[in-house]
Amino acid sequence: MKIAIDCRYLGMSGIGRVCEGIIENLDYSQNTFYLIGKLSKLQKYHDAVVLADDSNPFTKKGLLRFNKKRINHECDAIIIPNFIIPIGITLPVHIVMHDLIFLDVKETVNGKIDYFIKKFLLKRGMKKAQSVACVSEFTKSRCEYYYPKYAEKCYVNYNGLSKDIKDYKRTHMYAEKENTVVYVGNIKRHKGLHTLLRAFSTVKNSSLKLKIIGEREGFLTGLELNENDYANVEFMGRLDNEALFLQIQRAKFLVQPSVYEGFGLPPLEALYLGTQPIISEIEVFREIYSDFPVKYFTDEEDLAEKLNQEPEPIECSEKLEAMFNFQNFARKMMRMIQGNKS
User: Fold this and answer.
1) pLDDT for 99-113, tens place per residue?
2) Beta carbons of 6 and 21 less than 8 angstroms apart
């Protein structure tokens, strides 16, 4: 088969990692893959057909001017690692659904126009797709709730550990622990950073430091914080993967205080690197992490109490690799494309 993949998401956070996980684990000897995106990110894939497209998939230009003429003529199917299907695609489409947060938590959209555009694109994606890979049972259940007509298209396909983090672990087997807690993410309200900051302000360990990793300006502007008012809180900005993994590996805890997620990748990476996550007690985290040594919290007071405790030793990397593997993700998606749902 000849299969196209929308790779314009490479370099973005969650969706980008899933896209990378797919293309890193395909069998290029069995099928011909057309990778569409920035040449600088795709040049290393010598066994694929690479088509240049620098457009942003989240823009009007990206929706309308996607490089589609050749793939419509030559390919048998296309993989979209999101629900936004470019206009003019005539191939069978297979999409990845990460979450339905803007339907479940309407405060996350930027006004009515943004809401209706996303809602239209989501419904169009569900209708047009031949299969919908949902990154958790929770996300699948939300798809079935909002779109029961298309429920039979949905199947669960868990996120995996990236090649970068596996390579890092092989070359950094040990890092000395520091008296730090890390948060990795953005400032959107559903991520719960406000909850973490309030809880951290009450911890008894006066030497404990909280490191917030993400776009620095976004944090300071979005939270309206005066950095000087937060003793022992360091805003680190965005880090490259190696620096990020090192901070996670050295930390006592990684905290993920989200009130909503479709999967939640940072706790997975923390466990893999030997750091105990403290995570909110939400449905999807119970689904993904209940068999692993995480600490759940219910409110600010409970979170502060957990931060005052000592972490447990974490040794579960083999189990994690077996359960959350992008090779399995890619194989399962290929079976769906080839019409074999078993």
Assistant:
1) 999 999 988 888 899
2) no
